[in-house]
Design a protein that fits this description.
Strand content: 5-15%
Largest sheet: 4 strands, mixed
Structural class: alpha+beta
Distance between the termini: 38 Å
Helix content: 55-70%
Number of strands: 4
Radius of gyration: 26 Å
Strand order of the largest sheet: 3-2-1-4
């Protein structure tokens, strides 16, 4: 993974978030729009969280030290959890405020000013989303931080588009002579935007918790791992392969056990090192993610310390 490129993209995302946060907060006050203010607060929180992402990315790239002998990969899901909780709190607060405003005669806004802001938001957020998503896929495909950042900008783009549509509807209502209904458009937009947006932090929260708990990774990872390990086991003359596999942030954690049923089987230390190196090489070819890998050799598969998913080598 290109960690320098990752940090460059996070810096770009932070600059973009700062620009849109200031733009939305100032414009929201001048236009007296709860919707634009909500967008600004969200952008400001994104800016703060990007700073945390940047720190996490630099810490992870620094590698292991005496205080973190197993690396710092869990910083990544930890930051994602913190961000998701904060965004959920913001969504709850925005929804509550909009509900109160809706049942207290609404909020009068300037629809033309709102449409101008929303158009700038759609174009700018889409450009940031496209750049971050494309760069993340090409330069840092294993970075959960960049995936989360791209997801945030995607939601910003959709939110800005929804705001544009909402202000346009408010403008049409005013032009049609039903201006007394237009104050209700702004709080309604906030409520709809929150309901639409809240799924993203919920999904990120679950993903972050899974990473912190070092749970099993995606199912498709097992298939690729199985094929690679069994090919090595077959070539080396082993009967079984037992693997425990989990994800911690961007790292995949492997414990691989090669089982020889013949107790008289013998392998030199050099040969075992060759097998370990081959396993590491094959897994690094399959995944761009850093790997924490432990390879062991055993005779009794039933030993409690090697219980796991059994992949028997075909005869």
């Amino acid at each position: 993974m290109n960690t320098n490129r990752e940090q460059d993209v996070l810096t770009f995302s932070a600059c973009g978030a700062l620009f849109f946060a200031l733009l939305a907060l100032i414009w929201g006050v001048l236009a007296k729009s709860q919707m634009i203010m909500f967008d600004g607060v969200y952008s400001f929180i994104s800016l703060v969280m990007t700073g945390m992402y940047f720190y996490a990315a630099k810490s992870i790239a620094a590698g292991r030290d005496e205080n973190f002998p197993f690396g710092k990969s869990q910083l990544e899901p930890m930051v994602i959890v913190v961000q998701s909780v904060i965004l959920l709190v913001i969504c709850t607060r925005a929804f509550t405020s909009a509900t109160v405003s809706l049942f207290s005669s609404g909020q009068e806004t300037n629809s033309l000013s709102g449409m101008a802001y929303a158009f700038i938001g759609v174009v700018g957020c889409f450009a940031c989303w496209s750049y971050i998503a494309r760069t993340g896929r090409m330069k840092a495909p294993g970075s959960e931080l960049l995936k989360t950042q791209a997801s945030q900008w995607r939601m910003d783009t959709l939110l800005s588009f929804a705001v544009l549509v909402g202000f346009f509807i408010g403008y049409l209502i005013q032009r049609a002579g039903y201006g007394h209904y237009s104050p209700y458009v702004d709080p309604l937009m906030v409520m709809i935007a929150v309901l639409f947006f809240v799924r993203e932090p919920l999904v990120s929260l679950i993903r972050g918790i899974r990473g912190m708990l070092i749970m099993a990774p995606e199912k498709e990872i097992y298939g690729l791992s199985k094929k690679a390990v069994l090919e090595i086991a077959r070539k080396a003359g082993f009967d079984d392969a037992v693997v425990r596999l989990a994800r911690s942030g961007r790292e995949l954690i492997y414990e691989v056990y090669f089982v020889a049923k013949d107790p008289e089987s013998s392998y030199s230390v050099g040969r075992m090192d060759d097998i370990r190196n081959e396993v590491a090489s094959r897994l690094h070819e399959i995944f761009d993610n850093p790997l924490w890998l432990n390879v062991s050799f055993a005779h009794y598969r039933s030993s409690t310390y090697i219980k796991g998913e059994e992949w028997t080598v075909p005869g």
